[in-house]
Amino acid sequence: MTAQPEHPILTLEGIVKVFGGLTALYKPDCSIPAGTIRSIIGPNGAGKTTLFNIITGVLPPTTGAVSFKGRRIERLKPHTIARQGISRTFQTVELFTNMTVLENVMLGRHPRSRCSMLASGLRLPNSRKEEARIESKARDILKFIGLAPKFDQPAGGLPLGEQKILEIGRALATEPELICLDEPAAGLNETETHVASSLIRAIRERGITVLLVEHDMRVVMNISDEIMVLNHGQKIAEGPPEEIRDDPKVIEAYLGDEDRHA
Amino acid sequence: MDDISLAGQLFQYVITGITVGSIYAMVALGFSIIYNVTEIINFAQGEFVMLGGMVMVAFQMSMGLPLLLAFPTTVAAVTGIGILMDRLAIRPIRRPTVMTLIIATIAASILIKGAAMIVWGKDPLDLPAFSGRNPIHLFGAVIQPQYFWVIGFMLLTVIGLTFFFNRTIIGKAMSACAANPDAASLVGINVKWMILLAFALSAAIGAVAGIVVTPVALMEYDRGAMLAVKAFGAAILGGLGSFPGAILGGLIMGIIESLGAGLISSGYKDAFALIVLLAVLFFKPSGILGNIEISKIKRF
Amino acid sequence: MLRIGKLPIAILAGVIIMFPWVARHVTLIEHYTDIMVFAGIYSLITIGLSLLMGYAGQISLGHAAFFGIGAYSSAILTARFGMNPWGCMLIGALLAAVMALLIGTPSLKLKGHYLAMATLAFGIIVFIVFNEETEWTGGPDGMSGIPGLALAGLALDTVEKYYYLVWTIVLGVFIFTCNIIQSRSGRALRAIHVSEAAASAMGVNVARFKVMVFIYSAMLASLAGSLYAHYLNFINPSTFDLFFAIKLLIMISLGGTHSIWGAIIGALLVAFLSFEWLHFFEEFEILVYGAVLLLITIFLPEGLAGLPKIVHGWFRK
Question: pTM for the whole thing?
């Protein structure tokens, strides 16, 4: 897939985030081309999830700008950003455990469907058609991610690997142009990790840009088009996997972390 | 002459407000203690005050015990009820969610209220004042000596609690529980006992408040709920979980209510405290002395 | 998939239609039809609360206030100004909607205990207003002379006729609410209950949904209040006090917060407790309610509507 640096889908400029006395992020500027897989790595506490939270509107930056498809989004609310085309998964799986697998994905269709409460309450024909459309699209996504046979099971009952896949499926249902995956491989075994990696590649094949926070280096090295390394909230390296692997600053950031734990 | 009487009136309202506020402060302290250790808001907090007054009537009036004996006996009895509440209403809950705990404490409060109604009936009951009812004239205001007992016991409670939490081992253990229950249990602190202790302590404080305020305001079986809501407002106003906050919030709440009732409308007396509660919740839920980051992290 | 069966609803409809006929022929339960009117009125409130508390997970302890707003709006506008009762019902519901919007928007930003306290404070303030504004409401002595209702010329002046009115409305509202639960909006509400963060990341405007459900439940409570006023032809503030707010909580908990059937079950049980079973033990009323609520919370947290699941679980073992 050829990257198009002249038309970045997401840019971060001058983002600074301060919590009380702690500077969590300091200008990790970057520009992400559409249709690529960009990984963000770094030792624990480097600010990766904070960055995700700022991009998806959960947190406002102290200063700085986030631009999505040319539009400034850093002050928008999460649900508006979802409508604009950015979706995400969470570090600790946040599935709707009170609903089935299918219902979770159907909820993902929310920003791409319309039905007022009044129309739903009266079961007007339009609302029934919309509901059928929602269900049909959701079933397509379940097929795509390979969970179709389990559509009627309670979401909380799935093994962790499938829960993570389901969460990705739910995010895909929103028809995003950019999807932010927060540690999709965390807690997964070898097989499950392989399934997740394949899914992420398949997502890129569909033309969706993927932003990935991940600790599993094999996954990162295998599937990323480009990697950004954060440490203490700052960008210390950026480039394709081969460069990052040999970058002394990156090695020091991780080893330095290990030294402290030794 | 008119200037003096207006100043006198204002002083009267303020003194009454400080007295009532002391009661709110004590109940707010009870809220904060339980909240700090368990993150539960105990809707039954006001019932301990009610019980303090009613049980004291039983011991002092019906059974004729002298004040010095009836007082601690009442506190002990109500503390026992507080412990029962923890055992029967809180601990048995298998999956404690926010809603379940709220409903459990509400259930306990109506249970206690219902029992009180059966035992003591609906009429308000009175207690003799500790040092008589000869009013003291001060700056144009007429002050009941019992007011000073109320304020005095509030101060005593604060001093006692500060000493307890800062100087005694058990107190420090409770503070540890409040900060981090998992770490606390890892170092050998029995969290369940600490919760029990929190309920016991709050019940005791509530009982003291009930005993000292009944000679001033009488006591009846259903006083608890309104008291709890207003004292909660006081606790939030000062900053939930903070002891100085509970005192500050209580006194401010009492004074606002007293001034409102006196200067604006006595029929709407109860509404003033409630409006303050809503204002705090809407605009600054962390309260005056509360920490906004901490209030965001707290589970509820 | 959450599917609320059509068969149970049909059965409910059947029972509702048959009940007064049965009651008329069994002397012992002749007066039950009257109690059922109250049960129906309570159901309107609990259906809304079930959606709010059970499906969306937002606590309200202040719905007695909306019940009262409906009752007093209808009472004042019909008894004092002679306006058409049906129009007044609508006005009451709109007034309740506005108040719900005003109090709900800041309150629903709060969570758990804070939300409970905010709604509780609101409820008490409204109650105090009912008590104090004697010129409008008649104060603690209440208001009498509230006219009854008539539908297309037919006066609804018997218990049975009023029963059918109330329960027809309940059935309609029940079906309407079931439809919402099984729709896109219902999913959004259920999502909000479990994870507001995930819901908003999936495009759900959480704040707006919460307020909308709050307004819906407030309007239903107001409608119930209006029906109540026109039935008894007399209201007074004590009906809308803190204790009634707690009775509503008991209805919801007893019936079951996680199922809309719980709303009807709870309303029925508390209505019969209040008017029939505890009638001779008024002293014990409060105590019994407290005990029931506590026992439910500890032993049957999903209420009576959760029993089928528990029994099903026994059989599987």
Answer: 0.91
